[in-house]
């Protein structure tokens, strides 16, 4: 759980310079890029602090169940699917958009990839179908938003409705059980690499790629630029529309990968999959410090946000607290996290 | 430009072939035809006067509700004199009210209504009754008995009770037995009733303690997630009751992933996958407590009898009863063959 720490420290300054070359978008960010870098650091550190507090709480209340490798594996595994979705969501939000269709895309990809016809093609067929369906749905989102000039909120809301509908049409409301053994095996302890479940490795890989894209590529700098000020970015010569298209494509692909991971995890495909993922992913990104209006955010923060939520759920379940308490606490934590961020930001600007 | 067009060609071909592949992959038709569902003889098989039955249900977005539609249609087809007017399922109260009104306007002889929300559909039930159309209220009950002629549905409390009794009997000789409960959606009344019945049944066995309970939300995904946490929290226990076989698919997956098998598991609802597992007897799942979708077939039988003004064979009453609560049978390896045809997927 402490692994993200080193990269968190790298990230701040890198990100600060990253925004530099893009013809300095006249930003809303009061203190300028450099100050923001420091603040992102503070924010990630404070999330790590929250995780540490949670670990202490878990360790005190349920020492036997909380403090063992099995539970660490469990928390990371349960974070994997939503974590991959959140990485895509974070990029979209930083680019000034929003993607409400992630849960529905996960559902659609997971049921399309588990039909009897797809299962005939085995492991490769399932993986290919999941990713391509995600990509195709993301493409539709991207084209509608970038070239159809639709508001992202509306376009992805429409995708949410129709993808869920299509998923229901494919399954007819039935649970599609996966019988391809090579897929099922990936979710079982025998396939763990040095104690790390393959799903967690997948999550880590997506996180690293997402971090590289955002912090080490022109693509990442353009994303920050169009999210901060699209007009300035356009004047600076960035093809804003194409950039937006790519961002929704990326989110779709992330959903496809997440769907494949969910198939491994649950051994099935169901049209109810990915329920409310959009809210979980947005919440994780927000408490991770991503600005909902775009132009600012980190992958590491989002991943920490996901881990915080999963750890809370885990501690509640281990203590046998019921879902009503869990939901109240989740809401309270989102509010608290955002309030703390506001204070930090205001503190930085004066 | 030639560069762009070559790239375009490449992507175009890839896109077209991916598209073709995907379209080919939407089919869910099994290679071999599934055995025809057994359709036991109805109460009274003699054809009577023609009856038109209007059927309105919620959107069939999961296995059980889908089975409800299938059962209703199959039973109506069995009667040559019955015409079934079935509406597009909807979870939207306003839409469902509109559908029932349409059926009233069409002057169907009898209505069978499975409301998305029982309380919200009460008014339109009253309206139908006032218009002289008897209403068979299926499962989710209206707020007023005036809104239906006959109610037929499952017994959620009894489901918990029977699950508890079964587990109690299995563990009665075991000192300090621990039981875990994986419930369904917590903000549904039916979940509360099931849990209450389960707790009440376990009270009969002083050696058994309910040590943990978590609520999933009837989906495979949530079943896996919540069960994984329960397994982590309880390093050893003796029995598990899972409210719903759909989420049970995920729960079984979590159990397999944790490599645990020291306990016995009882399911709920009666999905085909669960029944297959019970029959195969190769997992912790040893039984499931029914919430029978065959109630839709029974509702059609009742509606037909109401339309033809006759009672039910086997009862000495002249009239159809006002309420029929179905029994939640415990399906185990011993009686599985009898129930297997009613399993839904």
TrEMBL record, chain A:
GO terms for cellular component: plasma membrane. The keyword Nucleotide-binding does not apply. GO terms for molecular function: transmembrane transporter activity. Residues 1-33 are annotated as: Disordered. InterPro entries: ABC_transp_permease. Residues 1-10 have a biased composition (Polar residues). It is found in: Cell membrane. PANTHER family: ABC TRANSPORTER PERMEASE PROTEIN YPHD-RELATED-RELATED, RIBOSE IMPORT PERMEASE PROTEIN RBSC. This is ABC transporter permease. It comes from Streptomyces sp. gb1(2016).
TrEMBL record, chain B:
It comes from Streptomyces sp. gb1(2016). It is found in: Cell envelope. It comes from the Bacteria. This is Sugar ABC transporter substrate-binding protein. Pfam families: Peripla_BP_4 (PF13407). GO terms for cellular component: cell envelope. Keywords: Signal. Residues 31-57 are annotated as: Disordered. The keyword Protease does not apply. InterPro entries: Peripla_BP_I, SBP_2_dom, TAT_signal. The keyword DNA-binding does not apply. PANTHER family: D-ALLOSE-BINDING PERIPLASMIC PROTEIN-RELATED. Gene3D superfamilies: 3.40.50.2300. Belongs to the bacterial solute-binding protein 2 family. GO terms for molecular function: carbohydrate binding. Residues 53-308 form the Periplasmic binding protein domain.
């Amino acid at each position: 759980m402490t692994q993200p720490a080193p990269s968190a420290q790298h990230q701040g300054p890198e990100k600060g310079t990253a925004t530099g070359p893009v013809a300095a978008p006249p930003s809303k960010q009061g203190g300028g890029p450099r100050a923001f870098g420091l603040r992102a650091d503070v924010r990630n550190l404070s999330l790590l602090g929250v995780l540490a507090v949670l670990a202490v709480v878990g360790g005190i209340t349920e020492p036997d169940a909380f403090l063992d490798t099995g539970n660490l594996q469990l928390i990371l595994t349960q974070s994997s699917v939503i974590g991959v979705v959140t990485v895509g969501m974070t990029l979209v939000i930083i680019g000034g958009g929003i993607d409400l269709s992630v849960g529905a895309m996960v559902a659609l990809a997971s049921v399309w990839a588990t039909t009897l016809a797809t299962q005939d093609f085995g492991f490769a067929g399932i993986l290919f179908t999941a990713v391509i369906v995600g990509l195709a749905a993301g493409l539709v989102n991207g084209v509608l938003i970038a070239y159809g000039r639709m508001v992202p909120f509306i376009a992805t809301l429409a995708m949410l409705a129709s993808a869920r509908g299509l998923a229901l049409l494919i399954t007819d409301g039935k649970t599609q059980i996966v019988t391809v053994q090579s897929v099922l095996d990936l979710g079982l302890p025998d396939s763990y690499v040095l104690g790390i479940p393959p799903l967690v490795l997948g999550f880590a890989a997506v996180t690293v790629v997402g971090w590289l894209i955002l912090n080490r590529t022109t693509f990442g700098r353009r994303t920050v630029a169009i999210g901060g000020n699209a007009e300035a970015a356009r004047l600076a010569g960035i093809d804003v529309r194409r950039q937006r298209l790519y961002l929704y494509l990326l989110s779709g692909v992330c959903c496809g990968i997440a769907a494949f991971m969910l198939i491994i995890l649950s051994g099935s495909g169901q049209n109810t999959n990915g329920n409310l993922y959009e809210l979980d992913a947005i919440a994780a990104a927000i408490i991770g410090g991503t600005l909902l209006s775009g132009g600012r955010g980190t992958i590491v923060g989002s991943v920490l946000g996901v881990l915080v939520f999963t750890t809370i759920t885990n501690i509640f379940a281990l203590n046998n607290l019921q879902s009503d308490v869990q939901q109240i606490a989740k809401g309270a934590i989102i509010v608290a996290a955002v309030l703390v961020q506001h204070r930090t930001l205001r503190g930085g600007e004066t | 430009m030639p560069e762009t067009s070559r790239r375009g060609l490449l992507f175009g071909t890839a896109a077209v072939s991916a598209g073709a592949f995907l379209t080919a992959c939407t089919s869910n038709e099994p290679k071999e035809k599934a055995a025809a569902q057994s359709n036991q003889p109805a109460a009274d098989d003699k054809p009577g006067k023609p009856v038109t039955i209007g059927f309105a249900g919620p959107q069939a977005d999961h296995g059980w509700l889908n089975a409800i539609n299938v059962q209703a249609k199959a039973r109506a087809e069995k009667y040559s004199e019955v015409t079934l007017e079935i509406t597009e399922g909807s979870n939207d109260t306003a839409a469902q009210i509109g559908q029932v009104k349409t059926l009233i306007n069409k002057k169907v002889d009898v209505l069978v209504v499975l409301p998305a929300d029982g309380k919200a559909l009460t008014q339109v039930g009253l309206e139908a009754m006032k218009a002289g159309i008897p209403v068979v209220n299926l499962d989710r009950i209206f707020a007023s008995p005036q809104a239906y002629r006959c109610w037929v549905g499952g017994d959620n409390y009894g489901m918990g009770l029977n699950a508890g009794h079964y587990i109690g009997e299995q563990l009665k000789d075991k000192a300090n037995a621990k039981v875990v409960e994986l419930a369904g959606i917590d903000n549904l009344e039916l979940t509360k009733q099931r849990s209450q019945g389960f707790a009440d049944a376990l009270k009969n066995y002083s050696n058994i303690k309910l040590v943990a309970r978590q609520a999933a939300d009837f989906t495979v995904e949530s079943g896996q997630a919540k069960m994984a946490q329960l397994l982590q929290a309880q390093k050893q226990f003796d029995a598990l009751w899972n409210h719903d076989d759909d989420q049970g698919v995920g729960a079984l997956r979590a159990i397999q992933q944790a490599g645990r098998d020291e306990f016995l598991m009882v399911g709920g609802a009666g999905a085909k996958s669960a029944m297959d597992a019970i029959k195969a007897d190769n997992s912790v799942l040893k039984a499931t407590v029914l919430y029978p979708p065959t109630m839709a077939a029974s509702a059609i039988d009742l509606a037909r009898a109401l339309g033809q003004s006759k009672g039910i064979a086997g009862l000495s009453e002249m009239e159809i009863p006002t309420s029929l609560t179905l029994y939640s049978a415990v399906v185990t390896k011993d009686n599985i063959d009898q129930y297997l045809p009613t399993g839904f997927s």
